[in-house]
Amino acid sequence: MVNKFYITTAIDYVNSDPHLGHAYEKVCADIIARWNRLNEKEVFFLTGTDENAQKNAKAAKIAKVPIKEFVDKNALKFRNLCVKLKISNDYFIRTTEPKHVKVAQLIFQKLYDKKEIYKGNYEGLYCTSCENFYLEKDLDNGKCPIHKIKVEYLKEESYFFKLSKYEKDILKLLNNKEFIIPENKMIELINRIKKDGLKDLSVSRRNLDWGIDVPFDKNHKIYVWIDALSNYISAIDYPNGDNFKKFWPANVHLIGKDITWFHCVIWPAILMATNIKVPEKVLVHGFINLKGEKLSKTSGNVVNPIKLIDKYGLDTLRYFLLREIHFGQDGDFSEEALKERLNNELANDLGNLVSRVLTICEKNLGSKIKKSDVDKELSNKLELKTIQKLMDNYELTESLNTIWKFVKECNKHINDEKPWEMKGETLNKHVYTLLEAIRIISILLSSFIPETCEKINKFLGVNQGYLKDCKFGLVKEYKISKGEILFKKIK
Fold first, then answer.
1. Are the CB atoms for 175 and 190 separated by under 8 Å?
2. 3-state secondary structure at position 372
3. Torsion angle in degrees (nearest 10) through CA of 47, 52, 55, 56
4. Measured distance CA(206)–CA(219) in Å, rounded
5. Exposure check for the chain: N or C terminus, fewer CB within 10 A?
6. From the CA atom positions of the chain, what is the Rg in Å?
7. Cβ(486)–Cβ(354) under 8 Å?
8. How does DSSP classify residue 215?
9. What share of the chain is helix, strand, coil (3-state, %, to 5)?
10. pTM of the model
11. Residue of 360, 472, 377 lying closest to 416 (CA atoms)
12. Between β-strands 4-9 and 42-50, what pairing exists: parallel, antiparallel or unpaired?
């Protein structure tokens, strides 16, 4: 289906509460999903939780709570975060649910039957937090380079996936410049493979109480690569479900930069080995830092997104995350920066624009504005094709910046033309043009700040439009009902 779009986020460990980094990834994915709906595509948007990991079992043990109870409680927190953020996901997968367990076991069995999996012994340095083995040369003073905690030495019987067999295929995939954004992540992976090669991958753990059983060997649990990664197909009912037939391969896997290896090397190889198409694109975002350090549950360096929403409002946070942190790069969080964006941009630029125009409508035109000629000088300032191209290329921040440039142009137009001094048809023309501009701005911003755009549409008395409706001169008459101000400034 050309008109379908399937986007996923990474699934989150439930070993502790969600933080701002989790919120950021979900908001970015939500913006992309909503934008594709504006393009009238049939969208399937997946997010969820990774619940079978040993780090979850370890956290439950520390908390002295039964593992199932612990996982259920924390998974609900991640689900509630999605609701609080107004994430428009179509499904929230939990990897403990029966349909996922069934698919993870099916993939493992298929690989084994095709002799892509064999039994052997593994020994190496292992980080529980990122569920990854490291070579000594890759450690940071003996610690995991991501989580900064000591790794442990493991030696045990394991089933192995023949990852090495797919080295040439993976390099060919990575050399396709369409597969990974940004390009520098593609280069990193290619260089790593060329330097170290691909080694066969341990895909089971022995004698664990928590996790999904290897279907033909109850002494082993399926390890994260086949378990967690297969959520992207179990959620859409692989192998015979209608959603799998309709939406796979995924158009976009949206992930953080610390798990590119797993999604761009391991996952495609597993799919190749089971004759399933690989995803079309892996989109990699950066980290949110707090005082220069990555937000991390392991290190305790966290910011609570729920508290920020309660204090500043949902759309303030959503807007800030995309405007302040350039998508694809790392960025710093600070409440001061968030307040500045709220006061100077959301309140002064957008809020003031809507308030000024609606006040003129109310005072000078009796809240009814008929269709008239459009002021081309203002309408020509809208860079719609640029905005669409940027969004098509997943340049989310640049797209938002370009939309905001038009918001500022509208304010400048009011200052320059002084419509409150006009009368008759001249006044009607300028106000009608401004109302059409606000309606179009509301469509373009609805992916980023949905609550605000709902309010704007209510003020204007219009329904939410699609991208095809971003044209001046469509509304025959406006009946305005001015409401509360969109954004309150914070002192």
1. yes
2. coil
3. 80
4. 6
5. C
6. 25
7. yes
8. T
9. 50, 20, 30
10. 0.93
11. 377
12. parallel
